[in-house]
Amino acid sequence: MFAQPETWVAIAFVILMVLFAYLGIHRTVLTALDHRAERIKAELDEARRLKDDAARLLTEYKAKRSSAEREAQEIIASARAEAERIATEAKAKMEDFVARRTKSAESKIALAEAQALADVRAAAANAAISAASTILSQSVKGAVADDLLAKGIAEVRAKLN
């Protein structure tokens, strides 16, 4: 049995274990393992805390995002309403402008018609005066003719103008 290498390995192992127990190495190893377990537990707690913080931040950012989206929708709706109001005002102003321009054009046309009518009447009066003066001057002669001619011309002018 002592010729077997496994026996000597087992004896050396037992001696080593007794030596470790005598020197208290097992306490050092256990303390190191306990410290490592505590460090791992602390890291796990820190990871759990960070995960909770991340979840909370995610929730906050989702709320902010939805709030921003609502605000953007409100801004868009407000802009559309403002654009419609401006378009309505512009349409009303344009219709008012067209109505004023139409009325102005109609008044100018009426004024031009009145002026043309007055010009035609004046031309007709001048033509009638000239014709009457020619006819009277040829048919009546002398001072009586001049007097009648002046009175007739004055009457015609007064009535036609």
Uncertain residue ranges: none
Q: What is the makeup of the main sheet?
A: none
Helix tally? 3
Give the class from helix and strand content and strand pairing. mainly alpha
Q: What's the average pLDDT?
A: 88
> How far is the N terminus from the C terminus?
162 Å
Radius of gyration, taken over Cα atoms and rounded to an integer in Å: 61 Å
Whole-number tally of structural domains: 1
Strand content: under 5%
Assign an overall shape.
rod-shaped
SSE order, one letter for each helix or strand: HHH
Number of E strands: 0
Helix content: over 70%
Provide the fold topology.
Blueprint: H1 5-23, H2 25-139, H3 143-160
Summarize the structure.
This protein has three helices and no strands. It is mostly helical and 161 residues long. It has one domain.
What can you see in these coordinates?
- This protein has one domain (5-160).
- The protein contains three helices and no strands.
- The protein has helices at 5-23, 25-139, 143-160.
- The radius of gyration is 61 Å and the shape is rod-shaped.
